[in-house]
Amino acid sequence: MNILKFTYYIFFSKSYESKKIKNDLLHKHTFSFPESSKSDFLLPLRQFKRILLKIWNGTKQEKIVFLKQQESLIYCDTNLEKNDLIKYVKNYDKSVEFAICREELLVGFSFSKKLFCSILYLFLLIPVFLIVFFRRKLILNITLLPEIYLQTKEILRLVNNLNIYNLYFFHPHEPEANLIAFFIMKNGIKVTKIPNSNPLFMFNKSMVSSKVVLSLGYQKEEADFFYNLDDGLKYEYWEPKYLQKFYNNNFENSINNKICFYSHGAKIRKEMGHNLPAFNEVNMEIDLLDFIRKNKFFSSHDVTVCLHPKEKKSLEIKFKSKEYYKEIFGESVKFFDEISYHSFSKFNLGFGAFSSILFERIHCGYKTLIFNDRIKDFPIINSNFDYFLVKKLNDIENKIDSALLINSNNFFLGRFNYTFKFQSHIVKN
How far, in Å, CA of 413 to CA of 21, rounded? Predict the structure, then answer.
């Protein structure tokens, strides 16, 4: 892929795919920069420095050596997840043996290639600064374009050299995902995107792909609603990673009235200056917890908090997080220190404000309520998933008390398609 093609598909092409590519590259939320970067006019230069250091000093943790032609290949984010993802995909495609990761695409080059990439990036900085000058609101996404171009060139080189037929694309929420998929598909390679177990509207509403893998019943509803089937986009169901052993197969009730609050780590995200998505689930959780604290809800309930991984990164952060939740729920609040999935069967009811663990808990067949008082696109029109939502702060306690009183079978009655049972409801295209 040369620079002219790259520029054409971003700025000039009017095709349906190009519109998706352009919209994602220029407007899709990115987690690559903190909130403060939006006002940093020198951000492109700082990013240039970071990428140069990566190109010249970075090393591959695992040298990419393929001893035979590959039929299928995995594309993921980090080296750490490679082995787990290979095992996962092998459940559906036995030919998968290797994975390449995003974080290692621009490292391990020869001296001449390092020099070439550095000069090319410097050349691309000129239009980046010009665009940023006139379109300051796009500074985060525009700053990423030179890196995206280099990454796209490298992954295209790798997949073409391997002569693969299928690419399994994990974490397709990044702004460049549609661009990469488009050029790979133009080379006759099938691309299968595997989103995380979150609603698609968050980061996967628009998709360029040969196929999309769904892991939640609600995602099937969204796919029918968002994706234009005339494009030939197919989708199928895979079991979510790691969840099968936590299924509530008989929809049995936990023999207690214990409640678990599943944190999204909103407070720590704000303190760390995270760039927040437009739907702003972070502020929604903060508002929820503030309301609970002021109104002393759950003073008569047995509440346990399941901390978000970000709240357990260090002993200091963990201590501060626990003190924060004690202010919310009272000194008697407990904390679940095991892996979050292990909590599912131990608590009668789970609740929180828009964390992926809540959707996974529903999928596993455990009673769960999700607070949402501001996200307009969720749930989609005429969806029964609305049943699992609490839409007003004043309704929280009543909804929770009502959910505690009914058994799991009745809680999910008419809504089993949102659990692991939904395989029987899915239609393969």
Answer: 40
> Pick from 253, 420, 223: which is nearest to 345 by CA?
253
For residue range 110-135, what is the model confidence (pLDDT) as tens digits?
Answer: 999 999 999 999 999 999 999 998 88
**pLDDT tens readout for residues 36-68:** 999 999 999 999 999 999 999 987 665 555 545
Task: Tell me which residue of 365, 414, 369 sits closest to 389, measured CA to CA.
Answer: 369
Each residue of 408-422: pLDDT tens digit?
999 999 999 999 998
Contacts of 91 (CB under 8 A, 6+ apart): 238, 239
pTM equals 0.92
The CA-based diameter of the chain, rounded to the nearest angstrom, is: 69
Determine the Cα–Cα distance for residues 233 and 200; give it in Å rounded to an integer.
15
Q: What is the spatial distance between Cα 90 and Cα 400, in angstroms, rounded to a whole number?
A: 40
Q: Is the pLDDT of residue 346 over 80?
A: yes
Residue written as tokens 């929770």? 400
Cβ–Cβ under 8 Å, residues 357 and 197: no
Residue 222 CA to its chain's centroid (Å): 15
- Domains defined along the chain, listed by start: 3-194 (no CATH), 245-414 (3.40.50)
Computed on alpha carbons and rounded to an integer, the radius of gyration of the chain in Å comes to: 23
Q: What is the DSSP letter of 374?
A: S
Q: Assess contact for 149 and 75: CB atoms under 8 A.
A: no
Cβ atoms of 125 and 146 within 8 Å: the answer is: yes
Q: Are 356 and 339 in contact (CB under 8 A)?
A: no
Tally: H helices and E strands in the chain = 14, 12
